[in-house]
C-alpha cells in the first residue's frame, strides 16, 4: 500500500490541525505539524511545516524521516520507512533506520488548544542513542507557499526547556517545550516538492527556514517536543515550573481519557469536525482546505451529532447558525479573511430546517426535549426562511404558482452542484432543481405541523412535483424543470439528485411504483462502491476521472465524479423500496443486512485507503474509483454514521416512523 497516499489527521477542535502521510513525506501545502486557526475556525496559519529527524548510535547515523525535493528526489532515501503504523488513539509509528535500530514516534493534538505533542522512545537499547530533530518553520497562510526571503527571524527566545520563535511580525508565535539541547544553526531548505499539489496543477514548490537542531539523549529517557500556537495556548498548556516530560504525560493522559470516551473509532473521527465559532460551535466541512459551510454543516450535523446522540452539540451548532438568517437565507459560507458571509445557496437554508426537524424528533425520543425558548428560536428561523423563500429573496428564489420553488439567475451557482471557474458556471441548474423541491416540500410539511398556513402551499407543490417531474420515457425524474425559467423546458440529465425524492429526507414524495423505478435506475447507472456518480456514464458530458488543473478538475466535479455522501440517501431509499409494503416489518432486518453488506462494507474498507479513519469527499467515476478531493469530509462521514446509527438499526418499540409517503 502506498504510504504517501494514506493521510492522517489530528484536529484541535478550533479549526487548526496537524496532518501528514503515513510515509512521513509531506505531499500537500496543507500538511503541517502545527497549523492554527487565528479566528476559529478561519484565519489558519501554517506555523511549523514539519521536521527532519535522525538517530545517532554506535553503529552510525540513521535517518528517521525523508523529504521530497524537486525535480523528484527523496532525501534521505528510505529514511524512516515505517515498520508499523497505528491510528488508535492517535498516530504512532515504529520507525526503522538503515542501521536496523527501531524508534517509536507518537503524535497527538490537544483538544481545545492549538497545540501538538510528540514523543520518541527507543524500542531497542543500544549503548548510546541520540535523537536529532531539525524543525522546518513557516508562518504563512495555509493556502500559500513560502519562499526564501530576508525577513524571517531565526533566533529563538530561550528560557530553560522553553523556546519561542517569532518568525514574522503579525504571525502567531511558536512556543515550544522540549527536553532537548537546542543548537542554533539557521538554514534555508529549498525546493520541497508537494506531489499532490503538482497533480492538481497548482504551485508545488516551497522553501522553508530551519533555525537549528534539537538534540535529545534517548538513553536518559523519552524525547518529548510540544508546540503551541501563541502565548495564551502555552500558558494554558504548560504549568509554571513543570518539566517538559511531566507536561507531556499530563496532556497525554488527559487526551487519552477524552478519546476513550467515544463509543467507536467513527464517533471519534466525527469529533474532528466539531469546532468553535465565536461563542458557539460549527462544523468544518472538510480537512485540509475547507472551513465551515452552511450546506455542509446542516447536512453533516444529522450524522455527526444527531445520529450519534450528541444532541447538545447539535443544538448549539444550529442555534449559532439560526442567528445568521438574512432575507430568508442562511449563509453558504464564511470566507477566510473576512467576516462577511456569502448568501449564495438555495438549499442551505432548507437543509437547516431538515436538521432542526431531526434534532427536535431525536430530543423528544431521548426524553430531552428542547426548552420553550430554544424551540421558539428555531421555529422563528424556520418561519423567516419560508416567508423569504415563498415571497421572494436573492437570486430569483421564490415560490411559483405551482407551489414549487424556482431559483437561479445567470452567473450564479446555487445548488450543491456549485462548480465555477472564473465566469463559467459548470452546472447552473437554473429553474426548479429536483432535490431543491424535495427539500422545499419537506420543509413546508414540517413547518405545517406547527403553523397550518404552510399546508396549502405544500399540497399544491406536492401535486405539481408528482405530475411535472416524472419522465415517463426514462422511468425516473427530470433533474430540472422550467429550465432557465422557461415553462415546460426540462433537463433530462440522469443525475443522483432525484434520489432525495425517495431517501435521505423524512418524506417519500413518490408512489411506490415510481419510487422503486427511481431507485432501480440510480442503482443501475450511477452506483459505485464509494457512492453515486454525479452524471450517467452514457451522457456526452460525462467525465470519468477527476484530475488535471483547476479548470479540468472543476469541469468534472459534478459531471460524473463520485460523491460518497450520496450513499446516505441512496441506501435509505433502497431499503424503503425493498421493504414489503403490505407488511413493513416482515423481512426488514434481512433487507438492512443486505444493504449493509452491499453498500456499507465498501465504505468501511475505504476508511483505510486515503484519509485514515475518515471518508473522502469524492472519487473517480471510472474504476477503480480512486479517492480524490478532500480526504477528510464531514458530510461523507456524517452520512455513513447516519446510516449505521439510524437507517440500518432496528427502530425502538413505539418510536415514531422515520419516514412517511405523501
Describe how the helices and strands are arranged.
Elements: E1 7-11, E2 17-21, E3 32-39, E4 42-57, E5 60-63, E6 67-69, E7 73-75, E8 82-86, E9 92-96, E10 102-109, E11 115-122, E12 130-141, E13 157-159, E14 162-165, E15 174-178, E16 181-193, H1 195-199, E17 205-217, E18 223-229, H2 231-237, H3 244-260, H4 265-271, E19 274-277, E20 280-283, E21 286-287, H5 294-306, H6 311-322, H7 348-365, H8 372-391, E22 398-399, E23 405-406, E24 420-421, E25 424-425, E26 432-433, H9 434-448, H10 455-468, E27 470-471, E28 476-477, E29 480-481, E30 490-491, E31 507-508, H11 512-525, E32 527-528, E33 531-533, H12 550-556, E34 562-563, H13 567-578, H14 588-606, E35 618-619, E36 627-628, E37 632-633, H15 634-647, E38 660-661
Parallel strand pairs: 31-38
Antiparallel strand pairs: 1-2, 2-3, 3-4, 4-5, 4-12, 6-7, 8-9, 9-10, 10-11, 11-18, 12-17, 13-14, 14-15, 15-18, 16-17, 19-20, 21-37, 22-23, 24-25, 26-29, 27-28, 29-30, 32-33, 33-34, 35-36
Helix pairs in contact: 4-15, 5-6, 5-7, 5-15, 6-7, 7-8, 7-9, 9-10, 11-13, 13-14, 13-15
The gist of it:
The chain contains 15 helices and 38 strands. With 662 residues, it is α+β, with helices and mostly antiparallel strands. It folds into two domains: 7-260, Distorted Sandwich (Beta-galactosidase, Chain A, domain 5); 265-661, Glycosyltransferase, CATH 1.50.10.
Notes on the protein architecture:
With about 650 residues, the protein is α+β, with helices and mostly antiparallel strands. The chain has two domains: about 5-260, Beta-galactosidase, Chain A, domain 5 (Distorted Sandwich); about 265-660, Glycosyltransferase (Alpha/alpha barrel), CATH 1.50.10. The protein contains 15 helices and 38 strands. Strands 1, 2, 3, 4, 5, 12, 16 and 17 form an eight-stranded antiparallel sheet that branches. An eight-stranded antiparallel sheet has the order 8-9-10-11-18-15-14-13, with helices on one face. It has a three-stranded antiparallel sheet with strand order 26-29-30. Strand 35 (about 620) and strand 36 (about 625-630) form a beta hairpin. The longest helix has 20 residues, at about 370-390. It is elongated, with a radius of gyration of 26 Å.
